[in-house]
Write a structure and sequence with these properties.
Helix content: 25-40%
Strand order of the largest sheet: 1-4-5
Radius of gyration: 21 Å
Amino acid sequence: PLNGLASFGHDAAAKVEELSSPEPGDLIILQSRPNEPTSGGSTKIGNLRIDVHHAAIEQGLLPPLTGFQPVWVVAFPLFMRANDANIGHTGRSGLCSSHHPFTAPLRKTEEELSKFLTDPLNVTGDHFDLVINGVEVGGGSRRIHDARMQELRWLLEELRVSLFAQELRTPQP
């Protein structure tokens, strides 16, 4: 029986059965979460998918992956909504850095910079992740080298760190 589908609506179980035509022994796993592009990160169902895939390989149901499959993940948001998982680097604004609070925006055009104040969740960061064969192995970002930009970021995130911004104002060798 299909249970626990209340968040999908009253007729969800019937709709899932209609669309998937499950047979005895089939396992159907569903998850719902907010439709927010900036609520990224790993999910329980994503971790389960990886575990099921590894178990299927161990049982000989799927062939092991072969080859080298790297992926650069780029152009993701500079900010995301704060939640319980990212406590410690959030402020009362409800925003936090998706990478870290020193990451620069990808483009410093007037249009992109105006989004800082009007639509911060749609500002793109100049950061990346490197994923090889489905495993994140590294990442990086271009740092902010402008004190005014850094102060604007901290204002949005309500981080009270002014010493670093002062350091950015001093001439560098």
